[in-house]
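P.,

For your records, the input lines for the assembly:
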Amino acid sequence: MRVSRRVTGAVLAAGLLVAASCCGGGDDGGEDTPAGGGALKGVKVEVAAKWTGQEEKNFREVLKEFEKKTGATVSYASTGENTDAYLGPRIQAKNPPDVAILPQPGLLKQYAADGALKPLAQDVVAQVDQNFSPYWKNLASADGKTYGVLVKAAYKSIMWYRPQVFSDAGVQPPQTWADLVKAAGTLQDSGTTPLALAAGPQDSWTLTDWFENVYLSQAGPEMYDKLAEHKIKWTDPSVGKALQTLAEIWGKPDLISGGVAQATKTKFDESVTQVFGQEKAAMVYGGDFAAANIATTKAKVGTDAQVFAFPKAGNTAPAMLGGDIAVALKDSKGAMELMKFLASPESGRTWAKLGGYLSPNKNVAPDAYSDPVAKQLIQQLQQAGDAARYDLSDLTPAAFGATPGEGMWEALRAFVQKPSDVKGTQERLESAAAKAYKD
Amino acid sequence: MRQPRGRGEGIAPPSWLALVFLLPALLLLGFLVVYPIVYSVVRSFFDASGDSFVGLDNYVGVFQGHDNLVAVRNTAIWVVLAPTLVTIVGLLFAVLTERVRWATVFKMVVFMPMAISFLASGVIFRLVYEQDPDKGVANAAMVAVHDVFRDQVTYPGAAPRTTNGSPVRAEGGAVVSAQPVAAGQSALVPLLRVKAEDLPEKVRPAARPPAARAGELTGTVWFDFTRGGGGTPNAPDPGESGLPGVTVEAVRDGKVVGKATTAADGTFTIKDLPSGTFTVRVPKDTFTASYRGAEWLGSTLITPAIIGSYLWVWAGFAMVLIAAGLAAIPRDALEAARVDGATEWQVFRRVTIPLLAPVLMVVLVTLVINVLKVFDLVFIIGGGDPNASVLALRMWTESFGGGNDQGAGSAIAVLLFLLVMPAMLFNIRRLRQERR
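Structure tokens returned:
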């Protein structure tokens, strides 16, 4: 569910951002001879990814760069929405593509356990070490071997807002959680509902993202990692503290557009429309992919719709990502060369210029990004450095972190309905987690 | 050498030939029906991985845990409520259309939802039940009806400042002056949280209260928020708008002794007041949040709401079947009853219904079978809300929708199969009887 929504979002976002930046690259003329001497001349490489439309087009541009450099011929296959449904049978039939882009780390662990993945070659790992912080390397590793490269990220530590109502109310984008609570109060005094919240059962992932941002900010990355692996229980006081913090906003139905009754039925796209289409609220949570939803309204990204970093609720400025991981499924020379290229800042720069793209690759400078919003986000991300983390709910078993009406989604949705019940929510989270982790 | 011939020789083909002809059908049935059923039953005795035998644990599990119990409860509600309602409504339509001139058109309209897929119906009803009355038809209608009987609230959600130093405070939903005010004095009523859409189109800036003469009490009610921030709190600054149309009361000992309505600039003058002090009050009707309709998709109403959409889809089906049954009723029986002096109600109750009973039973049983497997409507309208869940949906969630436990999913499937069985047997028996 969630993946598909994000994917469509991302696809549209890509289209939008590129339309805005209007073909930054791509017309380099017709020199066909590979600059790199054509070490892979005649080698065929197949890549499978879920991207379609503009996202696919941009990725093909990146692949073209690789072809130019090495002389290999790369073909692209679209996996459709459900990557596992496409790759699973091909792996069983011993006919996998050379390289595949996986939308979740969970899939990487699963394939690695099945022995379907090829560990990265020494020089590729060196490239990864050079460009990525150890956390991202670990994320794409299993049993001490590195299998993947996080090639494309969705940035999830931002809030979208309407600058006009902020200036009408005399409010600055908040830096800290206390600022956010205060700004919400002032916005409310000015007669604007501060917040739209998507707490519908099908899109409660926004609630998990709220929680994760607050938790990462308060408890820090190490505790965050422990919680993701269920090494600490959800009944831990740190979780309670984060919930109490959230209740400072969620616990006041007046701050939420339509009150709790409406928020708990609201889908993500509707929450964005409430702010930028119906103009019923001032701000809304959503990753960079929300740009696609905003594009369906009259509001223009960058002027009528701007972003600020998710407020710090503790000592760490939260920086949270979702993203796609490239893995090699064959040991071919072409596969490893392509992985190396995808791990390099070079591919990142090409991609960044095309728009609709963010990379945790720290050697792709903010200047490389053509889109102003992306530039702002990547600065935030790079400032966070080693404290940046992957979306926690995507690291947990799907039954707990990625199912409508179950686990973390429903526990937090119930918490929106009853924000005084911190303890009960923690117990509910823990019992659902215990069941999903099977311990 | 001739072998002795068996019975039926010459006319009937040998029995092995019959088997040959039946083989393709049997193979198909075996592959597509028998094998899956048997496999599901077997699978339901194993755990999530399918490796270890767990006996009846999966079956016990169906009745354990809050979410599962809600699904069981909802399925029971569905089975009892939905088929009965649909049959009754179908019967009503069928009987009524017999007497309506535009019967065919009417029947067509009622039957039309059957032509729409469940998924599309679900999407339609998601919109119908939308919480926001600006979007959802159901709530829009409720709000419209509600507002006919109740005055429009002027400034819903507006409230006084809560910090110290405010000349007014909230009290039981109303706004009252913090200090008593005497005739000949002025009162300030600064308010916050006034929604832009509630302000009049041409706002006038708030004015200072006019000077009060003897026996008069003056004041200003205004929106104490300067655009862009700043401004002195609790004083009508330039750029702040007056709130017209607000009723202001002077209250002494709980009794209203005088009242006035604010002008465009927010000022008011209460005349003919006795001496002494009063509390200035703006009654709570000015502020109560506007009525937003029912919470259709909330935890209590969600299952009845989805059953409502099911009714919309299936009423036509029931109507057509019952209307066909109705047409087959011998007219002379009805005529005889009427001649004997029965009223229309008695004819309907004592003659039509008993004669229709077999058809009604078939409709009811068919619907029960259908309701047990209801999935699409719940999936789309409920959107995963566990309060709407039914067994068929749990079956999917447990096996594929995140639970990843096909053992538990199979157990629910087998359970549903067992529940459908009596209804199926009943229908088959009926069919046999009819053939005789």
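Two observations worth noting. The interface with chain A takes residues 67, 130-132, 134, 157, 161, 192-196, 223, 225-230, 292, 295, 297-298, 382-386, 389, 397, 401-404 of chain B (CB under 8 Å). Strands of chain B lie at 168-171, 174-177, 181-182, 186-191, 217-223, 247-252, 255-261, 267-270, 277-282.

Regards
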